[in-house]
Amino acid sequence: MILIELFISFFRIGLFSFGGGYAMIPLISDVITKKGWLLQEEFVQIIGIAEMTPGPIAVNAATFVGYKTAGVWGSVFATLGVAMPSLLLILFISGIFFKYNDHPITKHIFLGIRPVIAGLILSSALIMARSTILVGGHVEGSSFNFETFIITITVLIIAMMKKMHPIILIGIAGLLGYFSIYF
To answer: How would you classify residue 135: left for phi > 0, otherwise alpha for psi between -120 and 50, otherwise beta?
Structure first.
């Protein structure tokens, strides 16, 4: 019964949360605390782990909550539940997209959507940069973290000059962070 409950709960979260994985975190937190599956402190730890592991944070959080609640099968059911609405929606949209892909209206719609996507990605990058380069994450009362700024600029230059795999760039940034302690 807990497996069905996990699936339904995470299906609802996936179905009614818009704005990406971070928008799902308050919903997940609300559900797990109301159902008594986890304590809030445990959920905060799970979010920390979910942010560090590869993949979408909502899927990772669902997997960890499911595992903590009902073991391996709990993680399977929670993960399927949170991912299923997106899968069904994209299957529906892709069917329409491929049917009308060559239509002039569709082409114009995507001409308008592309800049928005670039803007959203740039906005996320600037928010991340502000929260890592400014100690405290806010302009007022923050101090400038020079080491982080240098690492950011160095990795940005390397990424723009050479097409490197992100794992290599992360490794370079980690080494720069490690060596910044000694200099």
So the answer is: beta
Q: Among the residues of 36-165, which ranges form H helices?
A: 40-52, 57-100, 104-133, 146-161
Give the range of the structural domain holding residue 113, as residue numbers without chain letter.
Answer: 104-180
Q: Is the pLDDT of residue 18 over 80?
A: no
Q: Identify whether residues 68 and 120 lie together within a single domain.
A: no
pLDDT of residue 133: 79
Q: Report the half-sphere exposure of 137 (CA within 13 A, side-chain side).
A: 3
Q: What is the pLDDT of residue 141?
A: 55
Burial class (CB in 10 A: 0-12, 13-18, 19+), 10: buried
Strand partners, 134: 144
Phi, then psi, of 20 in degrees rounded to 5: 95, -175
Counted domains in the chain:
2
Same domain, residue pair 8 and 94: yes
pTM of the model: 0.59
Whole-number pLDDT of residue 178 = 87
Sequence letter at residue 145: N
